[in-house]
Amino acid sequence: MAKIAVTDGMDDTAVSWLEQQGHEVAVASLSVDELMSGALQEFDAIIVRSATKLPVEVLEASRGRLMVIGRAGVGVDNINIAHAGSMGIAVVNAPRASTQSVVELTIAHLLSCVRYVARADRTLRQGQWAKKALKGTELSGKRLGLIGYGRIAQSVASVARSLGMDIHAYDPYLPPKVAKSQGTVLHTSVDDLFRQCTHVSIHCNLTDETRHLVNAERISSMPHIGADGNPCGRHIVNCARGGIVDEDAVSQSLASGVLTSVALDVFENEPVHPDHPLLQMEGFHGTPHIGAATVEAQARVGMDIAANVHAVLAGEACDFVVNDPVA
Amino acid sequence: MAKIAVTDGMDDTAVSWLEQQGHEVAVASLSVDELMSGALQEFDAIIVRSATKLPVEVLEASRGRLMVIGRAGVGVDNINIAHAGSMGIAVVNAPRASTQSVVELTIAHLLSCVRYVARADRTLRQGQWAKKALKGTELSGKRLGLIGYGRIAQSVASVARSLGMDIHAYDPYLPPKVAKSQGTVLHTSVDDLFRQCTHVSIHCNLTDETRHLVNAERISSMPHIGADGNPCGRHIVNCARGGIVDEDAVSQSLASGVLTSVALDVFENEPVHPDHPLLQMEGFHGTPHIGAATVEAQARVGMDIAANVHAVLAGEACDFVVNDPVA
Question: pTM of this prediction?
Answer without folding.
Answer: 0.89
